[in-house]
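Sample intake sheet
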Amino acid sequence: MLVKKVLAECLVKLGETDFTEETEYTDAQSALLDELLHALNFAYRDAVTEYIPLFKEEEVDVKKGVIFTGELSEKIIYPVSLVAEGCKRRVRIYPDGLVADFDGKAVLRYAYLPAELTLASEIADMRLTPAVLADGTLAEYYFANKLFDLAQSHDNDFRSALSLLRYKGRDMRLKVGRWRA
């Protein structure tokens, strides 16, 4: 899905005409698109860090038990697993890298933070719809412009939709336990 499609949905919800397909923008249109794009980046990063993470597997070289996170192709949020020679290895998080109980080649699976979106970007994650991202974008946009009631309304819709995606529509069930008041 294209970023322009999400911004077009935001413009419609704002009551504006959709001018995203025009070749040149006025100063006011440019300023509005910049604000919406900034809000979209914030909402998208919130979605992929808190609700529906993006995962990547990458071959890494563990040197003296350390994996330098700066050498990874994406910005790591947290490691999921480290597999070397067919066995899962233990990995711990430190400020300057990851520490493993292994030396050599391994495959690291990790959640990552996507690159910042631009007007020409495409969002590859098909779990998110333009309507869901538009709600998150408008929540951030209204919050930045101090329209708190509208921001709260869109934020509730955004988080409800993300929760459904996170749990794939399943109800959350707690095991029966001994609860005392």
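Comment: The chain has a mean pLDDT of 88. The beta strands are 54-62, 66-67, 75-84, 87-89, 91-94, 97-100, 104-113.
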